[in-house]
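If your schedule permits, I should be very grateful for your opinion on a structural question. Kindly check, if you would, that the fold set down in the tokens agrees with what the sequence suggests. Thank you for your consideration; the sequence and its tokens are set out here:
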Amino acid sequence: MKKILVSPNFKDLLTPNINIGCFPDGDSHVFIPNLVKLRGQKVFLCHRLYPNQNNSLVELILILGLLKKEKIRPVLIVPYLPYARQDKYFLEGEAASAQEICKLFHTLGCQKLITFDCHFLKKPGKFVFENLPIENISLGDELIHYAQKINPRQKLEIIAPDEGASYLVKKQGGKTCLLYTS
């Protein structure tokens, strides 16, 4: 049976077994009790990266660094992947943030990333991006079903935020909003 490491920001779903704190200057501190017992094993790591993407990302970097040091091979479960909006260069001198985040996870020993409705993948399935295996799971059907359940008498108007997310609503006859703001 695979072990599960749970960040405190997942405590609404699972009991945390990672301690994350803050030093007086705001720097994050990470401690994983009994980490050596997991040495060399494959584990599931549950950690949210939203809200507070930047702090949560630093916490994840610290966690992954600890796991890599102990040769622990994490499968990372991140419901929302921040910085996934830009996987290509559009202007000279701009960062492709999705590439950098995925490269970082791969370099820090992440064996696989499991996420939901990843912006740059544009459909559910299994992919490899920047040498990082990614499983993108769509929650579109579940979200629409839930909305219909809590509002059974109202006809829903289902709108995807952009063309890349149109797969989320296509089966239910939804529309795509083509507004773009820079």
